[in-house]
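Model it.
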Amino acid sequence: MDPEVSVLLHCTAWGGLLEPQVQVELSARFNRQTDPALESHIEEVWTERVTMEPWLFNGAKFRLHSFSLASTQHSCPHTPQPPCLNGGGDRDGRQCSIQKEEEGQHETKGNAESGRAQVLRHQRDQIDGVIGERQHNDKDLSSYKQREGNLRDSQTTTPGCRDQHPAVGSSAAEAQPFPQRDVGGKGEGPTPILTLRLGLTCYRDFLGTNWSQRARKLRQRAEVEYGDPLALLAQPLGVGGVLCTADRQVVLIRRSQQVAEARGLLDIPGGHPEPKAVFEGLDEEDRIRVEMLQWREEAVVRELFSSVCAEIRDEVNVPLCSLGEPILMGIALNHTSAGRPSAEFYIRSSRALLAGGH
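Modeled.
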């Protein structure tokens, strides 16, 4: 594994997580800590960067504070510091703080069948195939392509698509929409397994904290003052997509030279879920507050899953109607930017790469 990247959360114990298996908790408590001196430093860094690179622009982002797993069969490994925010007596779920990944990689263990929906069992072969554990089975998608409204634009005709199905040139079973989510567990749909605890941050704050030359000192100071080395960091939650084509190729892109991070390097398609996407018609991003999002949790989860497909559409020029359901494989931390988190997804395309379909 790349020494600059570590795994915070690995979802293959469930065969990957679909959108109905994920929920969010939004609160201002999950925002970063700050003070006037730090704000002054962030402003200085931002002014300097924009002067040198005028194409940069600020934007609101979701801040990943921590996560919890609902299953009692899966818990955080023990580390020198307590990895669970709610103590060891919580039998309903374990709350795992991101900074504890710095002590070592997290691997969920336990009974893989516990609380797992049939939909996830069928997806295991595809997830494992991408990470080299076993081969794809093209029929494995048939049991869970039934969800209504899986992507923002999938129900409308997209240029370059022959019809309105989410898959082009695939079987009829693959092209069907997925059943509606059932977060209450009363229907047939799977119930949430993963809860992401999110606050708000922005790109400007990321450059002034995670990407700052003072990042190490900020971590040390935050550990002393708050008992959390990431408390002063922006920690914007990114997304990345392992795009597997119909001929079983994985698509990589080369990053632009006009970005702050990893210029010119090969990468998977990705970006960030956008809080502004939850508020259609909102022009001023600085008006977004956590309190405005607290009644829109499902829309936030939808943005998290659909944003990775939107990034693939924009960066690889693949229409949404040819993309399958995003499967959350886990969360990785990028240590070149002080442990910035990114949710990593697996997405199948009905188009072939070698045949010129992408």
